[in-house]
Amino acid sequence: MKKEDKSTIIKQLESTIGEYAHFYLADIGGLNATQTSELRRTCYNQDIKLLVVKNTLLRKALESSDVDFSELYGTLKGETSLMLCNTANVPAKVIEDFSKKNKAKKPVLKAAYVEESFYIGENHLDALVHIKSKYELIGDIIALLQSPAKNVVSALQSGGNTIHGVLKTLGERQ
Predict the structure, then answer these.
(1) I need a labelling partner for 24 at 20 to 30 A (CA). Which of 1, 65, 162, 163 fits?
(2) Given this model, what pLDDT does residue 29 score?
(3) How distant, in Å, are the alpha carbons of 13, 111, 128 from that of 72?
(4) Where in the chain are the domains?
(5) Is 118 helix (H, G, I), strand (E, B) or coil?
(6) DSSP letters along the chain, please?
(7) CATH node for 3-131
């Protein structure tokens, strides 16, 4: 491959990584053509971009990024696939479900960059499956903040009925 072609690919990888908030590095080696097609179809349906990349080109793209991805460099060995997504836990769910269905137990999580944190090794897959996205966390916080306000409003409404009943009873006594 010519040096110009490599630099073009590196720039494309860098811009593609910059477009997505989260990415996973996975090993999909050992899957046959049918399984690979099924994985690609699943990724496409889940809004995940799946790329098979050369480790050296990916490393150079990560090095030229604004973020320090040096923690991921150790995982760039063997066959590497890049799974890019804007929802944090979707690729982890795809990896988990797909590896359960086939005999090769692939894909295998190598590393992930999720919510500005690094997860190295497949032992973090379970945590990544259950991680909540930024918008899910904001929704949970809003629900928690609304709960006391709803309790106060309902208490005031029931208290208003009680006060009205007491005043009505006192008014009828005289």
Answers:
(1) 1
(2) 86
(3) 15, 7, 16
(4) 3-131, 132-174
(5) strand
(6) --HHHHHHHHHHHHHHHHH-SEEEEEE-TT--HHHHHHHHHHHHHTT-EEEEE-HHHHHHHHHTSSS--GGGGGG--SSEEEEEESSTTHHHHHHHHHHHHSTT---EEEEEEETTEEEESGGGHHHHHHPPPHHHHHHHHHHHHHHHHHHHHHHHHHHHHHHHHHHHHHHHH-
(7) 3.30.70.1730
**Per-residue DSSP letter, 131:** P
For the chain, give the number of residues: 174
Query: What confidence score (pLDDT) does residue 47 get?
Result: 92
pLDDT tens digits, the chain, 174 residues: what are they? 788 888 899 899 999 988 998 999 999 888 889 999 999 999 999 999 999 999 999 999 998 888 888 898 999 998 999 999 998 889 999 999 998 888 778 899 999 998 888 999 989 888 898 888 777 888 889 988 888 777 777 766 766 666 777 777 778 876
The owner of tokens 């097609």 is 37
| DSSP codes of every residue in 58-71 | HHHHHHTSSS--GG
Alpha helix locations (H) across 46-133? 55-63, 90-101, 125-130
The CA radius of gyration of the chain, in Å to the nearest whole number, is 26
pLDDT for the residue numbered 156: 66
